[in-house]
Amino acid sequence: MEMESQQESQKRRGMSKEELISEQTGSLGCIGWFIFIISGVFTLCLFPITIWFCLKIVQEYERAVIFRLGRITDRKAKGPGIFFVLPCTDSIVKVDLRTVSFDIPPQEILTKDSVTVSVDGVVYFRVNDPIASVANVTNADFATRLLAQTTLRNVLGTKNLAEVLSDREGIAHSMQSSLDDATDNWGIKVERVEIKDVKLPVQLQRAMAAEAEAAREARAKVIAAEGEMNASRALKEASLVIAESPSALQLRYLQTLNTIAAEKNSTIIFPLPMDIIAHFMRK
Q: Where does the sequence pass through the membrane (predicted)?
């Protein structure tokens, strides 16, 4: 008996989703057909009254899963439009196919480098298999919400703080892939996952701000030092050019006097002409 049960379970694992649904939606049996016929006769006898219970309307964005004596009637859901059911033997469950979005509540998560952060997000999903969403899970919407919270914790637990702050798109794609694989048997298609906000502790924010300020100051000092070095090199090259041509120094002298006169100063100091100073420098 155990061997037969194992073979049957292995056979079920190898079956596709459509074959499993087909097995679940088997024939009603003799008693089922008898009850179905009695229900049909009863509906025909009370037709003016039962017509209001037999006609069902499904909107364009909805599908109806029909259970007849506890079994799903067809391999696919009904709708959209109007269709006929028996009030005594048939029951319907309407499934909304529109995209649903919900917020993931803020989760206190310990990252890989032992930093506690609060992260929240938003998930967009829809039902792509109405029969699986009704037959395989009690409440597909609630189950997807809970699974999104645990998936967010599991994914962020493998990341360090720098990756959480800089690689939000990669984290969102990883969450979407994990959620989509987990909810495939529920007939749910996860379309998009987004990380909304990452909140850090106040002390860590201050430490990161101090670190960023120190890095900016160090970078500013390096840039200032490079500027002074380039300026000194330019002055050295200019002095070599002036040393080769004394007239260039005289021209520079006149240029400086012109600049000083343009600034409307009340006092102008005239240095000694370079030709007089050159006479004493030769001696």
A: 31-55
pLDDT digits (tens, 9 = 90+) for 16-46: 454 444 444 446 567 666 666 676 666 666 6
Q: How far is CA 241 from CA 154, 230, 236, 247, 272, in A?
A: 69, 17, 9, 11, 21
Distance CA 132, CA 178 (A): 19
Among candidate residues 104, 107, 100, 142, the one with its CA nearest the CA of residue 122: 104
Please answer whether residues 96 and 128 qualify as being in contact, where contact means their C-beta atoms are separated by less than 8 angstroms: no
CA 9, chain centre distance (Å): 38
What residue spans in the chain does CATH classification 3.30.479.30 cover?
100-200
Separation CA 80–CA 77 (nearest Å): 9
Superfamily covering domain 100-200? Band 7 domain (3.30.479.30)
Asked whether residue 127 carries a pLDDT value surpassing 90, the answer given is yes
Statement: residue 176 has pLDDT above 80: yes
